[in-house]
């Protein structure tokens, strides 16, 4: 019987991260959710471990990883989606904030965990949360989408350099995901929601459990010959 893996899910207190933590926990893995807030309550609800972590702060990363212990699977879900603006209007400081969290933060936690995986010598898996927006532009969302294009590049960079150590690095790239927050902002039947759905050949927003399933697959033994990809979970949106 395979022993339980330790799976660290950043941004795991809510939304996609919470669904991913739930999916890994259902497999019997030792799941640790990391977030800036709401960690204790979410961890208790899910029956997993929790740790406070700021992925943009190296001392915070070091302290959190000392508490977590060895990590077999890292899921880089933490990021910000709420800062938007057109090219001619987005404040430069807002773009820097997006890049600091989504790109620099993902780089930092990946670097720290990968160093520990390499030193341990038993391989591992890293799954980043990207977005099809890194390949398909939406007006007003270019700052976020640029950060996710960088996450795709970081995924390939890490994959090629960590492959000799038996560490696989992939990404899941959803389209719009039906999280509770999105459902609140885009209620069913609203023109805004219909505008998004109309872009998707399968005519539905991505169920959150489908995104979680993709992350679980990429970290699994069924994907041992897969590294460096960004897997769309988008209902065919990239086709149009």
From TrEMBL:
Gene3D superfamilies listed in its UniProt record: NAD(P)-binding Rossmann-like Domain
InterPro entries registered for this protein in UniProt: KR_dom, NAD(P)-bd_dom_sf, SDR_fam
GO molecular function: oxidoreductase activity
SMART domains in alphabetical order: PKS_KR
Residue ranges constituting the Ketoreductase domain according to the UniProt record: 5-175
Keywords: NAD, Oxidoreductase
Family: Belongs to the short-chain dehydrogenases/reductases (SDR) family.
Entry protein name: NAD(P)-dependent dehydrogenase (Short-subunit alcohol dehydrogenase family)
Annotated source species: Actinokineospora cianjurensis
């Amino acid at each position: 019987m395979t022993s339980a893996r330790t799976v660290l899910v950043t941004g795991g207190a809510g939304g996609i991260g919470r669904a991913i933590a739930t999916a890994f926990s259902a497999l019997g893995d030792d799941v640790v959710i990391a977030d800036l807030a709401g960690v204790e309550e979410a961890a208790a609800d899910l029956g997993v471990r929790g740790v406070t972590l700021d992925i943009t702060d190296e001392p915070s990363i070091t302290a959190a990883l000392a508490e977590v212990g060895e990590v077999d699977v890292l899921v880089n879900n933490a990021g910000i989606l709420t800062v938007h603006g057109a090219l001619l209007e987005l404040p430069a400081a807002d773009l820097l904030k997006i890049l600091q969290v989504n790109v620099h933060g993902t780089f930092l936690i990946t670097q720290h965990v990968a160093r520990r995986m390499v030193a341990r010598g038993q391989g591992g898996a890293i799954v980043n949360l990207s977005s099809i927006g890194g390949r398909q532009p939406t007006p007003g969302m270019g700052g976020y989408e640029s950060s996710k294009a960088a996450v795709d590049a970081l995924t390939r960079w890490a994959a090629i350099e960590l492959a000799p150590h038996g560490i696989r690095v992939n990404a899941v790239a959803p389209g719009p995901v039906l999280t509770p927050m999105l459902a609140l902002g885009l209620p069913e039947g609203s023109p805004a929601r219909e505008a998004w759905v109309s872009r998707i050949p399968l005519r539905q927003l991505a169920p959150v459990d489908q995104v979680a399933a993709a992350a679980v697959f990429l970290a699994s033994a069924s994907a041992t010959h897969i590294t460096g990809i960004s897997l769309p979970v988008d209902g065919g949106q990239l086709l149009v």
